[in-house]
Structure formats: C-alpha cells, structure tokens
Write a structure and sequence with these properties.
By secondary structure, this protein is of the alpha/beta class. Helices cover 22% and strands 17% of the residues. Helix 2 packs parallel to helix 3 and helix 5 runs parallel beside helix 6. It comes from Pseudosporangium ferrugineum.
Length: 454
Amino acid sequence: MRRSLLLTVAAALAASGSAVYIASSAAAAAEACAAAWSSSAVYTKDMTASQSGHNYTAKWWTQNESPATHSGQWDVWADNGACGGTTPSPSPSTPPSTPPSTPPSTPPIPVTGLPKHALIGYLHASFANGSGYVRMADVPADWDIINLAFGEPTSATSGDIRFTLCPPSECAGVESEADFIAAIRAKRAAGKKVLLSIGGANGQVQLTTTGARDKFVSSVSAIIDKYGLDGVDIDFEGHSLSLNTGDTDFKNPTTPVIVNLIAALRSLKARYGAGFVLTMAPETFFVQLGYQYYGSGPWGGQDPRAGSYLPVIYAMRNDLTVLHVQDYNSGSIMGLDNQWHSMGGADFHIAMTDMLLAGFPVAGNMANMFPALREDQVAFGAPSSVSAGNGYVAPAGVQQAVTCLVKGTNCGGYAVRSGTNPNFRGLMTWSINWDKFYGWEFRNSHEPFLNALG
C-alpha cells in the first residue's frame, strides 16, 4: 500500500478521431426498433441500436462490434429482444449528459451484507509504522470492511502465507490473540466484514508453481479458519504480478503467476461458498495503465507488470466483491479522454474510476475490451492523511469525485463515459490507524456523506 511505482513505459496512444453517434431510444414505443447499428459509430454505455430485428443496449464503449455476435452476460451488447418497425440510420449527435444509469441487462446486485455505500479501511494488525496501534475492539463501527494488514509469505515463491499480531515490543497495547479473535467475532456479529489482506509493499507473492498455488490455498484457509474471517483482500504490489512475453490476451492468460493466482482464488471461493468476500487493492500501474500498455508489449520493451491485474480481475469478475484501486503513490495515467491525469485532486479519482465503470480497450486494441464492472463492485482508494501516502486529497475533493461518479454532476472538466452510478460501492483508505492519528478526518467526513447518498 505504501510503494510508489515508476512508470517506465515510453509511448502514448493517439486520441481517437471517431465521431460519436447516438442511437434513438426505443423507450417511447416498446415494439419499435432503435436506429440501425452502424459499424463506424461509437456507442457508449446505455446507448441503443437495432440489428436483425432485435434491439440492443451497449454496456460500455464500443465500436465495430456487431450486436448480433457480441451480446450476452459478459459481452458488450445486451439483447433487449425482438422489435418491429424501423427508424432512420443514426446521425452524428452529442451524447446525453446523464444517460440512464442502469441498462436493461444489468444483473441484480448480489446480497453481500454490505451497506449500499461502504467505508473500507486497512488496520495495521501485524506491524508498527509510527501511526499507533489500534485494537480490533476499538475500531469504530463506521468501518464496514476491515482489512487486516498484512498476511505475508515466508518467501516470495513459497505461497506459504503467515499472519501474526504485532509483537508487544513494537505495538504498545496490543491485545491477546484470544481478545483479537473475540473482537473479530463481535465485528462480524454487528454486520462488519473482516478480511485478511495479503501482500502489501513488503509482501511479494509469486505463485510460480502449482505447489505454491496449493500452499497458498491451504495456508490462507488456515488463517481464515483460525481467526474467523469473512474472506481475503489481494494487495499484490511490486513484482508479485507480471506477464510473460507473448501473454497478450487478458481473457486467456498463460503466465503461471497469473494462472495460479486465479486458480487459488477460485479454490478459496469454492471452499467458503457464497458468503466469501473477495476484494482487491491494486495500484493504477497494474490496472488503468493497461489502457495504454499491456505486459511487455508487441516489441518486448515495456514493463511486463503493466496491466497485469486485469486477467485476475476479469477471471474473478463473478466472485469479486469490491475492487478499490489505490489512487495514490501513482504516476500520471492516461484516461478515457486520452489526457494525462495526475493524483492529488478529484479529477484523478474521477478519471481512474470511470475507466472501471465504463470499460476500456486494453493496450488500445478495440478487439480486446476490458468490460465494465458492476457499480457495486467499484470503490476507490484514497490516503486518510498526508502521512498515509502520496496523493492525499482533502475531503471536499474526494466527495466531489464520488458525487460526479454517482450523480454525474460536479465533474469539473472531465466528461464521464460511464453515466451515473447510483450503486457505486464507496471509499477505501490507507489506513484506519493513520485516520485515528489525524483525528478521524476521513471517517468523520466520509461516513455521513456516503450514508446521505441514498
């Protein structure tokens, strides 16, 4: 959570010059066909088109992807059923400022036990870093997900994850293990989720072999069972994930550290069932940078870690509870507007999160689209204070970003591609400890704000 990555890749995508077209809505006449689909038109989330006697709704940005062959639960178009009659072909227009927030195909939001808008924080349970120790029983009830930092491997490639409470010599006031477990039980009884966060800045995890994969599953399961946890948070940083040369399709990865992690997470989900909570906290380098660069690239000169979380997120999309990318300790990242965005203000949170809610072409390849996640699966991470990480944004800026993403207003100069997102999950912070150290600014500012969103 505390590591800054240097963006070493060297080229930028050219901004697209394609015209944007709006297909007319079929809402006024349920049986009428929307404007005919055009292969040259650009469609964004909630825009409609018709083809071969059916109406379709775009789930995210798309161009030249036929609705008839690109519809389904995890494809770009939703088939709205047969239609009758015709309407003229589309003409250039300006996208509506606030398109419908929920496309007809949006699946129901799973029951997770979380509030509609959640406050998520990391608890320094295994180490001291100057912010002070916080006992589990003393964590305020406002925190809906508490991530225990950190479970770390015995070695980078062992897969053997260990978690121990901070020793009394480092953390004054640390509780006994029995009291810690009892406090977790009380938090869960109150409806909170307590997770083991695996990795962190110092915990490199590389599941290079099936043996490491299996050890990961067994050791993580042992920790979950011992402490009575709800699931895991994957916070792989540094060199934990990278892509081998030639591994260019995020939907079908071949790199062992990626494939084995996916298999391990699926095994944990199968073991614990529907109630298993899975969150992820990648840095922007491993997710949004994938819009420009993916792996080592076609000529082998890029950083192989670029975008390397994308295949894991995609593979686990049915089981992912929340993705909260770290919008801090980051270099500048290009957004869907093909402009560079830098951390430290509302604009960065808006642009980075919009990419997850709208979807984007990986490495600029329109045939390789990373699909939008559900609104309830997306939050963003922000430092709780100036000492917690680079990129601190005052509460007003954080709330401006959330308001933009949820309601489509107060977005500054950025035009969101994802429309409105009333089920946006909420906010993550590093960390609960730093927030207490600075008088609970993050919690006191954002918990009532999130509750008031409705």
